[in-house]
């Protein structure tokens, strides 16, 4: 909800009989009334102008950049900006097209942001997704395969929309437009909205809480390339914890066009643990398949033998 400041302006009706009588009673009384009316009327107007100042484009951009700089400092400053790798463990709840809960997954994720990412299911670690720039691979019960064109495109789009990538790198891109979008109450916190528009016409709106200077919400507006329909994607950030000098949200929720897509609850976060480059390769999945593939085959063979014994 946008915070609106409502003021009551007291403006006497000088055509009323009561005021006319006072005027007739003496000029000094009229002057006193005019002075009082002026004080009551002008004070709220000054405050309203202060809270709803119309900024010039360069002023708006400067204010937006200053708020983003505050957010970066609150997140950890240079420590946040210079993260090399991230390892996190958590629980993911996914939702269907109607918003119904589809189930929970326990996972571990390794990343060298912004372009390298590896997600494994726990505890078996036999379902793994790896993305490395414009390449990607999957490991499942059928073995190792190339990521689909759709999955690669989705991953690259997610990288461009990732809030850490925006704050660490994308704000320095040529042609990025910045605007201050006003004061609001977001998730029960007084927050400043900052708006960014990139060269591909994606619009990012980030709500920064005034008391902590931490991001609490991000909204991304795009247009579907085929239908030209507007898509709105919202992420909510909450339950921040300081980890190795970096303020880290332990709960993230994503919605798309008003429907909840997923909710993540993190159990553990680690930064800069020297995650090796080799984790983000097809070869690493093939090595993993050599281990889990044999286990799966042995399990299937045992199950088949038991069924034959019963027959």
Give the structure's gist in a few sentences.
By secondary structure, the chain is an alpha+beta fold. The chain has helices at 17-25, 27-51, 57-75, 78-81, 149-161, 163-168, 282-310; strands spanning 86-95, 101-112, 116-121, 128-132, 135-140, 143-146, 177-186, 189-197, 203-209, 215-223, 230-243, 246-256, 259-271. Mean pLDDT is 83; it is low at 1-51.
Explain what this protein looks like in three dimensions.
The protein has seven helices and 13 strands. The chain is α+β, with helices and mostly antiparallel strands and 311 residues long. It has two domains: 35 residues; 235 residues, Clam (outer membrane lipoprotein receptor (LolB), chain A), CATH 2.50.20.10. A 13-stranded antiparallel beta sheet has the order 6-5-4-3-2-1-13-12-11-10-9-8-7. The N terminus is likely disordered.
Let me know the average pLDDT. 83
Strand order, biggest sheet? 6-5-4-3-2-1-13-12-11-10-9-8-7
The geometry reads as globular
CATH fold descriptor of the largest domain:
outer membrane lipoprotein receptor (LolB), chain A
Comma- or semicolon-separated keywords:
311 residues, alpha+beta, outer membrane lipoprotein receptor (LolB), chain A, 2 domains, 13-stranded antiparallel beta sheet, 13 strands, 34% helix, globular, disordered N terminus
Could you outline the blueprint of secondary structure elements for this entry?
Blueprint: H1 17-25, H2 27-51, H3 57-75, H4 78-81, E1 86-95, E2 101-112, E3 116-121, E4 128-132, E5 135-140, E6 143-146, H5 149-161, H6 163-168, E7 177-186, E8 189-197, E9 203-209, E10 215-223, E11 230-243, E12 246-256, E13 259-271, H7 282-310
Antiparallel strand pairs: 1-2, 1-13, 2-3, 3-4, 4-5, 5-6, 7-8, 8-9, 9-10, 10-11, 11-12, 12-13
């Amino acid at each position: 909800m946008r915070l609106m400041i409502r003021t009551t302006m007291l403006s006497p009706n000088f055509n009323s009989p009561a005021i006319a009588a006072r005027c007739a009673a003496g000029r000094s009384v009229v002057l006193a009334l005019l002075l009082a009316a002026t004080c009551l009327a002008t004070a709220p107007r000054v405050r309203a102008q202060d809270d709803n100042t119309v900024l010039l484009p360069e002023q708006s951009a400067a204010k937006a950049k200053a708020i983003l700089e505050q957010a970066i400092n609150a997140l950890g400053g240079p420590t946040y900006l210079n993260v090399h790798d991230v390892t996190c463990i958590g629980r993911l709840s996914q939702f269907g097209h109607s918003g119904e809960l589809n189930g929970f997954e326990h996972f571990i994720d390794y990343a060298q942001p912004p372009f390298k990412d590896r997600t494994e299911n726990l505890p078996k670690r036999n379902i793994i997704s790896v993305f490395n720039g414009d390449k990607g691979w999957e490991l499942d019960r059928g073995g190792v395969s190339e990521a689909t064109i759709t999955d690669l495109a989705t991953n690259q789009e997610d990288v461009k929309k990732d809030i850490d990538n925006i704050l660490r790198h994308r704000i320095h891109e040529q042609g990025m437009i910045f605007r201050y979008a006003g004061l609001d109450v977001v998730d029960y916190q007084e927050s400043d909205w900052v708006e960014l528009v990139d060269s591909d016409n994606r619009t990012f709106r980030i709500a920064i809480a005034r008391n902590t200077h931490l991001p609490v919400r991000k909204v991304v507006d795009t247009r579907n390339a085929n239908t030209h329909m507007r898509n709105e994607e919202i992420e909510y950030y909450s339950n921040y914890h300081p980890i190795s000098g970096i303020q880290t949200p332990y709960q993230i929720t994503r919605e798309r066009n008003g429907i909840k897509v997923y909710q993540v609850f993190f159990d553990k976060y680690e930064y800069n643990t020297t995650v090796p480059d080799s984790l983000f390769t097809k070869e690493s999945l093939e090595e993993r398949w050599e281990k889990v593939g044999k286990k799966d085959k042995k399990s299937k063979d045992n199950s088949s033998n038991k069924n034959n014994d019963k027959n």
